[in-house]
Protein backbone atom coordinates (compact mmCIF):
# COMPACT_ATOMS: atom_id res chain seq x y z
CA UNK A 1 0.00 0.00 0.00
CA UNK A 2 2.94 2.26 0.71
CA UNK A 3 4.20 1.75 -2.83
CA UNK A 4 0.97 2.87 -4.22
CA UNK A 5 0.96 5.99 -2.06
CA UNK A 6 4.58 7.03 -3.02
CA UNK A 7 5.32 6.40 -6.74
CA UNK A 8 8.89 7.76 -6.38
CA UNK A 9 9.89 5.27 -3.69
CA UNK A 10 11.76 3.01 -6.13
CA UNK A 11 13.69 5.93 -7.56
CA UNK A 12 14.76 7.04 -4.11
CA UNK A 13 16.01 3.56 -3.25
CA UNK A 14 18.05 3.35 -6.48
CA UNK A 15 19.55 6.77 -5.84
CA UNK A 16 20.55 5.72 -2.31
CA UNK A 17 22.20 2.55 -3.65
CA UNK A 18 24.25 4.53 -6.17
CA UNK A 19 25.41 6.85 -3.42
CA UNK A 20 26.60 3.88 -1.38
CA UNK A 21 28.86 2.58 -4.32
CA UNK A 22 32.55 3.59 -4.15
CA UNK A 23 33.55 6.40 -6.54
CA UNK A 24 36.22 5.82 -9.31
CA UNK A 25 39.42 7.74 -9.00
CA UNK A 26 40.26 10.27 -11.80
CA UNK A 27 43.23 9.23 -13.97
CA UNK A 28 45.52 12.17 -14.91
CA UNK A 29 45.99 12.87 -18.71
CA UNK A 30 49.43 11.94 -20.13
CA UNK A 31 50.18 15.09 -22.12
CA UNK A 32 53.70 13.89 -23.03
CA UNK A 33 52.30 10.83 -24.80
CA UNK A 34 49.86 12.89 -26.86
CA UNK A 35 52.51 15.49 -27.66
CA UNK A 36 54.86 12.80 -28.94
CA UNK A 37 52.16 11.29 -31.17
CA UNK A 38 51.28 14.71 -32.52
CA UNK A 39 54.90 15.47 -33.31
CA UNK A 40 55.31 12.15 -35.14
CA UNK A 41 52.20 12.79 -37.24
CA UNK A 42 53.30 16.35 -37.94
CA UNK A 43 56.78 15.17 -38.95
CA UNK A 44 55.31 12.58 -41.28
CA UNK A 45 53.09 15.26 -42.80
CA UNK A 46 56.08 17.57 -43.33
CA UNK A 47 58.05 14.73 -44.92
CA UNK A 48 55.18 13.97 -47.28
CA UNK A 49 54.89 17.63 -48.23
CA UNK A 50 58.62 17.83 -48.88
CA UNK A 51 58.55 14.59 -50.87
CA UNK A 52 55.68 15.73 -53.06
CA UNK A 53 57.29 19.14 -53.50
CA UNK A 54 60.45 17.51 -54.84
CA UNK A 55 58.78 15.15 -57.29
CA UNK A 56 58.82 16.45 -60.85
CA UNK A 57 57.35 15.17 -64.12
CA UNK A 58 59.21 15.04 -67.42
CA UNK A 59 56.72 15.54 -70.26
CA UNK A 60 57.04 14.69 -73.91
CA UNK A 61 58.79 17.46 -75.84
CA UNK A 62 60.86 18.96 -73.02
CA UNK A 63 64.15 18.67 -71.17
CA UNK A 64 64.40 18.85 -67.36
CA UNK A 65 67.69 20.37 -66.24
CA UNK A 66 68.72 19.41 -62.69
CA UNK A 67 71.15 21.84 -61.05
CA UNK A 68 73.02 21.24 -57.82
CA UNK A 69 74.46 24.35 -56.20
CA UNK A 70 74.13 26.12 -59.54
CA UNK A 71 75.95 23.48 -61.60
CA UNK A 72 74.22 21.17 -64.08
CA UNK A 73 74.03 17.76 -62.41
CA UNK A 74 71.80 15.88 -64.83
CA UNK A 75 69.38 16.34 -67.74
CA UNK A 76 66.25 14.23 -68.06
CA UNK A 77 64.43 13.91 -71.37
CA UNK A 78 62.54 10.60 -71.08
CA UNK A 79 58.91 11.10 -69.99
CA UNK A 80 58.15 9.98 -66.42
CA UNK A 81 58.28 10.79 -62.68
CA UNK A 82 61.56 11.76 -61.02
CA UNK A 83 62.67 13.16 -57.67
CA UNK A 84 65.28 15.75 -56.76
CA UNK A 85 67.19 16.23 -53.54
CA UNK A 86 65.34 18.77 -51.36
CA UNK A 87 66.99 22.13 -50.74
CA UNK A 88 70.04 21.05 -52.77
CA UNK A 89 68.83 20.56 -56.31
CA UNK A 90 66.62 22.71 -58.53
CA UNK A 91 64.84 21.81 -61.77
CA UNK A 92 64.25 24.02 -64.82
CA UNK A 93 62.47 23.21 -68.08
CA UNK A 94 63.89 23.61 -71.60
CA UNK A 95 61.53 22.98 -74.56
CA UNK A 96 62.49 20.26 -77.01
CA UNK A 97 59.76 20.93 -79.59
CA UNK A 98 60.11 23.17 -82.65
CA UNK A 99 59.68 26.91 -82.08
CA UNK A 100 59.12 29.87 -84.39
CA UNK A 101 61.48 32.83 -84.20
CA UNK A 102 60.51 36.16 -85.77
CA UNK A 103 63.64 37.93 -86.93
CA UNK A 104 63.96 41.69 -87.04
CA UNK A 105 63.72 43.40 -90.42
CA UNK A 106 67.13 44.15 -91.94
CA UNK A 107 68.48 46.21 -94.84
CA UNK A 108 70.77 44.36 -97.24
CA UNK A 109 72.71 45.48 -100.31
CA UNK A 110 72.30 43.30 -103.40
CA UNK A 111 74.93 42.53 -106.02
CA UNK A 112 73.64 45.35 -108.25
CA UNK A 113 74.02 47.84 -105.35
CA UNK A 114 70.35 48.11 -104.39
CA UNK A 115 69.17 48.30 -100.81
CA UNK A 116 66.31 45.99 -99.90
CA UNK A 117 64.46 45.30 -96.66
CA UNK A 118 64.31 41.61 -95.73
CA UNK A 119 61.64 40.16 -93.44
CA UNK A 120 62.19 36.51 -92.54
CA UNK A 121 61.58 33.94 -89.80
CA UNK A 122 63.19 30.74 -88.55
CA UNK A 123 61.95 27.42 -87.18
CA UNK A 124 64.37 26.07 -84.56
CA UNK A 125 64.73 23.68 -81.63
CA UNK A 126 67.09 22.69 -78.82
CA UNK A 127 68.93 19.43 -79.51
CA UNK A 128 71.40 19.53 -76.59
CA UNK A 129 70.18 21.37 -73.51
CA UNK A 130 73.54 21.20 -71.72
CA UNK A 131 75.43 22.77 -74.65
CA UNK A 132 72.75 25.42 -75.03
CA UNK A 133 72.94 26.43 -71.36
CA UNK A 134 76.74 26.28 -71.28
CA UNK A 135 77.16 28.39 -74.45
CA UNK A 136 74.21 30.78 -74.26
CA UNK A 137 72.93 30.57 -70.70
CA UNK A 138 69.26 31.00 -71.55
CA UNK A 139 66.87 30.25 -74.37
CA UNK A 140 66.53 33.97 -75.10
CA UNK A 141 70.28 34.38 -75.48
CA UNK A 142 70.44 31.33 -77.75
CA UNK A 143 67.73 32.81 -79.98
CA UNK A 144 69.57 36.12 -80.17
CA UNK A 145 72.79 34.39 -81.16
CA UNK A 146 70.95 32.39 -83.81
CA UNK A 147 69.47 35.61 -85.20
CA UNK A 148 72.96 37.10 -85.56
CA UNK A 149 74.12 34.07 -87.54
CA UNK A 150 71.04 34.14 -89.77
CA UNK A 151 71.48 37.84 -90.53
CA UNK A 152 75.14 37.30 -91.40
CA UNK A 153 74.40 34.38 -93.74
CA UNK A 154 71.39 36.08 -95.39
CA UNK A 155 73.44 39.21 -96.04
CA UNK A 156 76.23 37.12 -97.57
CA UNK A 157 73.93 34.99 -99.76
CA UNK A 158 71.72 37.81 -101.04
CA UNK A 159 74.75 40.01 -101.62
CA UNK A 160 75.74 37.61 -104.40
CA UNK A 161 72.41 38.01 -106.26
CA UNK A 162 70.88 40.84 -108.27
CA UNK A 163 67.60 42.34 -107.10
CA UNK A 164 65.65 40.80 -109.98
CA UNK A 165 67.01 37.36 -109.14
CA UNK A 166 65.89 37.70 -105.53
CA UNK A 167 62.32 38.79 -106.24
CA UNK A 168 61.88 36.41 -109.16
CA UNK A 169 61.34 32.89 -107.82
CA UNK A 170 62.15 31.33 -111.18
CA UNK A 171 65.56 32.94 -111.52
CA UNK A 172 66.69 32.87 -107.90
CA UNK A 173 65.32 29.42 -106.96
CA UNK A 174 64.02 30.79 -103.63
CA UNK A 175 63.58 27.31 -102.20
CA UNK A 176 67.22 26.44 -102.88
CA UNK A 177 68.31 29.79 -101.40
CA UNK A 178 66.40 29.09 -98.16
CA UNK A 179 68.02 25.65 -97.93
CA UNK A 180 71.49 27.12 -98.41
CA UNK A 181 70.90 29.68 -95.66
CA UNK A 182 69.63 26.97 -93.28
CA UNK A 183 72.64 24.75 -93.96
CA UNK A 184 75.19 27.53 -93.41
CA UNK A 185 73.56 28.73 -90.18
CA UNK A 186 73.57 25.19 -88.75
CA UNK A 187 77.25 24.85 -89.62
CA UNK A 188 78.03 27.98 -87.59
CA UNK A 189 75.88 26.89 -84.63
CA UNK A 190 77.41 23.42 -84.59
CA UNK A 191 80.93 24.83 -84.80
CA UNK A 192 80.38 26.92 -81.64
CA UNK A 193 78.50 24.12 -79.80
CA UNK A 194 75.32 26.09 -79.16
CA UNK A 195 73.20 22.94 -78.84
CA UNK A 196 70.43 24.32 -81.08
CA UNK A 197 69.41 23.48 -84.64
CA UNK A 198 67.67 25.58 -87.28
CA UNK A 199 65.02 23.49 -89.04
CA UNK A 200 64.16 26.09 -91.66
CA UNK A 201 64.77 29.73 -92.57
CA UNK A 202 62.17 31.44 -94.77
CA UNK A 203 62.23 34.85 -96.44
CA UNK A 204 58.66 36.14 -96.10
CA UNK A 205 58.98 39.51 -97.78
CA UNK A 206 61.46 41.64 -99.71
CA UNK A 207 60.68 45.36 -99.92
CA UNK A 208 62.44 48.44 -101.22
CA UNK A 209 63.11 51.48 -99.04
CA UNK A 210 60.52 54.19 -99.70
CA UNK A 211 63.09 56.72 -100.91
CA UNK A 212 64.18 54.65 -103.93
CA UNK A 213 61.15 52.46 -104.50
CA UNK A 214 59.75 54.46 -107.46
CA UNK A 215 63.10 54.80 -109.23
CA UNK A 216 63.69 51.06 -109.00
CA UNK A 217 60.22 50.34 -110.34
CA UNK A 218 60.82 52.69 -113.28
CA UNK A 219 64.14 51.01 -113.95
CA UNK A 220 62.48 47.60 -113.83
CA UNK A 221 59.80 48.75 -116.30
CA UNK A 222 62.47 50.09 -118.65
CA UNK A 223 64.42 46.87 -118.36
CA UNK A 224 61.33 44.77 -119.08
CA UNK A 225 60.53 46.91 -122.11
CA UNK A 226 64.09 46.47 -123.36
CA UNK A 227 63.83 42.71 -122.93
CA UNK A 228 60.45 42.70 -124.71
CA UNK A 229 61.89 44.72 -127.61
CA UNK A 230 64.79 42.30 -127.82
CA UNK A 231 62.35 39.39 -128.06
CA UNK A 232 60.35 41.24 -130.74
CA UNK A 233 63.50 41.94 -132.77
CA UNK A 234 64.57 38.34 -132.46
CA UNK A 235 61.09 37.24 -133.50
CA UNK A 236 61.11 39.50 -136.55
CA UNK A 237 64.53 38.20 -137.59
CA UNK A 238 63.35 34.63 -137.16
CA UNK A 239 60.21 35.44 -139.16
CA UNK A 240 62.23 36.87 -142.07
CA UNK A 241 64.62 33.94 -141.98
CA UNK A 242 61.77 31.42 -141.98
CA UNK A 243 59.95 33.24 -144.80
CA UNK A 244 63.13 33.38 -146.92
CA UNK A 245 63.80 29.71 -146.28
CA UNK A 246 60.21 28.84 -147.15
CA UNK A 247 60.34 30.88 -150.39
CA UNK A 248 63.58 29.17 -151.36
CA UNK A 249 62.10 25.74 -150.72
CA UNK A 250 58.96 26.67 -152.71
CA UNK A 251 61.07 27.87 -155.64
CA UNK A 252 63.11 24.69 -155.55
CA UNK A 253 59.98 22.57 -155.41
CA UNK A 254 58.38 24.48 -158.32
CA UNK A 255 61.53 24.19 -160.41
CA UNK A 256 61.73 20.49 -159.68
CA UNK A 257 58.03 20.07 -160.50
CA UNK A 258 58.36 22.01 -163.78
CA UNK A 259 61.39 19.97 -164.73
CA UNK A 260 59.57 16.73 -163.98
CA UNK A 261 56.46 17.99 -165.83
CA UNK A 262 58.56 18.87 -168.89
CA UNK A 263 60.13 15.44 -168.86
CA UNK A 264 56.73 13.77 -168.53
CA UNK A 265 55.28 15.99 -171.30
CA UNK A 266 58.17 15.19 -173.61
CA UNK A 267 57.81 11.51 -172.91
CA UNK A 268 54.04 11.80 -173.54
CA UNK A 269 54.56 13.66 -176.82
CA UNK A 270 57.07 11.07 -177.94
CA UNK A 271 54.70 8.28 -177.03
CA UNK A 272 51.82 10.06 -178.82
CA UNK A 273 53.95 10.62 -181.93
CA UNK A 274 54.88 6.97 -181.87
CA UNK A 275 51.22 5.99 -181.67
CA UNK A 276 50.33 8.44 -184.46
CA UNK A 277 53.01 6.99 -186.68
CA UNK A 278 51.84 3.47 -185.98
CA UNK A 279 48.22 4.48 -186.71
CA UNK A 280 49.19 6.34 -189.93
CA UNK A 281 51.08 3.37 -191.20
CA UNK A 282 48.13 1.07 -190.57
CA UNK A 283 45.27 3.34 -191.86
CA UNK A 284 46.38 6.59 -193.54
CA UNK A 285 42.85 7.71 -194.37
CA UNK A 286 41.64 7.37 -190.77
CA UNK A 287 44.71 9.23 -189.55
CA UNK A 288 43.97 12.06 -192.03
CA UNK A 289 40.38 12.21 -190.78
CA UNK A 290 41.57 12.27 -187.15
CA UNK A 291 43.93 15.15 -187.83
CA UNK A 292 41.18 17.05 -189.59
CA UNK A 293 38.85 16.59 -186.61
CA UNK A 294 41.60 17.72 -184.24
CA UNK A 295 42.01 20.90 -186.29
CA UNK A 296 38.23 21.49 -186.04
CA UNK A 297 38.45 21.20 -182.27
CA UNK A 298 41.17 23.82 -182.08
CA UNK A 299 39.71 26.32 -184.61
CA UNK A 300 35.93 26.09 -184.21
CA UNK A 301 34.21 27.17 -180.95
CA UNK A 302 30.56 26.93 -179.90
CA UNK A 303 29.44 30.17 -181.62
CA UNK A 304 32.03 30.25 -184.42
CA UNK A 305 30.76 31.02 -187.95
CA UNK A 306 32.95 29.94 -190.86
CA UNK A 307 32.53 30.31 -194.61
CA UNK A 308 34.21 27.60 -196.68
CA UNK A 309 33.85 26.35 -200.25
CA UNK A 310 31.59 23.39 -200.80
CA UNK A 311 34.47 21.32 -202.14
CA UNK A 312 36.58 21.91 -199.02
CA UNK A 313 37.45 18.86 -196.90
CA UNK A 314 35.87 20.68 -193.92
CA UNK A 315 32.57 21.04 -195.82
CA UNK A 316 32.54 17.42 -196.84
CA UNK A 317 33.00 16.31 -193.23
CA UNK A 318 30.43 18.75 -191.81
CA UNK A 319 27.87 17.84 -194.44
CA UNK A 320 28.44 14.14 -193.79
CA UNK A 321 29.35 13.42 -197.42
CA UNK A 322 32.73 12.06 -196.58
CA UNK A 323 33.81 9.49 -199.16
Automatic annotation (TrEMBL):
Keywords: Hydrolase, Membrane, Protease, Transmembrane, Transmembrane helix
A cellular component term, taken from the record's GO annotations: membrane
Gene3D superfamilies: Band 7 domain
Residue intervals of the Band domain: 53-220
Main location class: membrane
Top-level division of the source organism's lineage: Bacteria
Key word Hydrolase present: yes
Residue ranges of the TM segments: 38-58
UniProt GO BP: proteolysis
UniProt-annotated location(s): Membrane
InterPro entries: Band_7, Band_7/SPFH_dom_sf, HflC
Molecular function as annotated in GO: peptidase activity
The keyword Hydrolase is annotated on this UniProt entry: yes
Physiological role: HflC and HflK could regulate a protease.
Membership in a protein family: Belongs to the band 7/mec-2 family. HflC subfamily.
Name recorded for this polypeptide: Protein HflC
Organism in which the protein naturally occurs: Psychrobacillus insolitus
